[in-house]
Amino acid sequence: MELESLSVSSEIEGIEFVEYATRCPQEFGAALLAMGFRPVARHRSREVLLYRQGDVNVIVNADAGALDGESQKCGSAVLLKALAIRVPDAGLAYRQALECGGEAVASRAGPMELNIPGIHGPGGAVLFLLDRRADVSFYEVDFLPLPGAHFNVPALAGLHFFGVVQYLPSGDTARWRTFYEKVLGFAPLPEDVRFGVLPRGMVMKSACARFFLQFIEPPAAAEDAHWQEGFNRVALGVPDVAHAVAELEARGIHFVDASLLGNPELGALTRTLVGGTQFELVHHAE
Predict the structure, then answer these.
(1) Cα 167 to chain center, whole Å?
(2) Which of 109, 104, 85 is nearest to 19 (CA)?
(3) Are 114 and 141 in contact (CB under 8 A)?
(4) What are the angstrom distances between the C-alpha of 83 and each of 162, 210, 224, 236?
(5) pLDDT tens digits along 211-224
(6) Is pLDDT of 9 > 50?
(7) Element (DSSP H or E) covering residue 92
(8) 234: phi then psi, degrees, rounded to nearest 5
């Protein structure tokens, strides 16, 4: 991806959803239930479910071909495959992304479904660009409510979107920093500004100050180890980490020993869930 400078950036308004591709939707769905999510709708034409709590939308895609060949090679049964970014004007943001060297993703919209513009992200993932200028939301068009489900699902312990951790090959941070700066108006934070319990890697903040990206390159001692490029995990903000951990542990979610990670008041990391997935908690009051 060769990036060129643009004079105008499309500042994001937040995260609309994250999408996981999986071969084990029932098992992964059970893990999401334990995390406080609830299934609320099914896609009109594909084997896809929408889970929600508070402002956090998680799409679970078990449709045929959801896990591509590269995913099959790495053996993952669950992968974080897409990040949908909410912008003021999706068309403008999409054009800027292409002018910056972004590669377009072919539309996967079916009849009566919204055509959401997207570009290739890290490791084969997709960055979707959505706006809310239409009178009807994406979820109302592409999904059908599940019987008896309610879209307003209370957030467990105040959980809300905070950020996404992105794994990169060695030396790739500068390229992605430029991309997020020019296309989406992100800005890098000073090196001494950190959130949560994992201090390594560059952190970028959206212009709306509601979402963060953390870039992690492989450690020098692990240059020969397998390092899967892509979106690695979702970080969820909580006003009280200890309270959130206690509530989630009571629901069967286990956490990495806090003594191995740093200050437990700043954050926590779940142990590996279904398919190798993890969620990170970060102390953050909305």
Answers:
(1) 12
(2) 85
(3) yes
(4) 13, 15, 28, 14
(5) 999 999 888 766 55
(6) no
(7) helix 90-99
(8) -95, 135
Q: Tokens 């008041």 appear where?
A: 265
Distance, CA of 189 to CA of 214 (rounded, Å): 10
Confidence class for position 33, pLDDT limits 50, 70, 90 = very high
Cβ proximity of 282 and 240 under 8 Å: no
What does each C-alpha distance from 217 to 29, 36, 58, 201, 234 come to in angstroms?
Answer: 30, 31, 26, 7, 17
Q: Is 183 a residue whose pLDDT tops 60?
A: yes
Of 192, 193, 164, 196, the C-alpha closest to 180 is 164
Q: Which of 183, 134, 209, 210 is nearest to 10 (CA)?
A: 183
Cβ-contact 117, 129 below 8 angstroms = yes
Write out the two tokens for 15.
């995260």
Q: SS3 letters for 211-279?
A: CEEEEECCCHHHCCCCCCCEEEEEEEEECCHHHHHHHHHHCCCCECCHHHCCCCCCEEEECCCHHHCCE
The secondary structure of 187-213 as a DSSP string is EEPPTT---TT---SEEEE-TTSS-EE
Express each pLDDT in 62-86 by its tens digit: 988 777 655 454 557 899 999 999 8
- Cα gap 49→229, rounded to integer Å: 25
pLDDT digits (tens, 9 = 90+) for 116-174: 889 988 888 899 998 877 666 778 788 999 999 988 999 999 999 999 999 998 889 99
Q: Please tell me the distance from the alpha carbon of residue 104 to that of residue 98, in angstroms, as a whole number.
A: 7
Mean pLDDT value across residues 47-73: 83
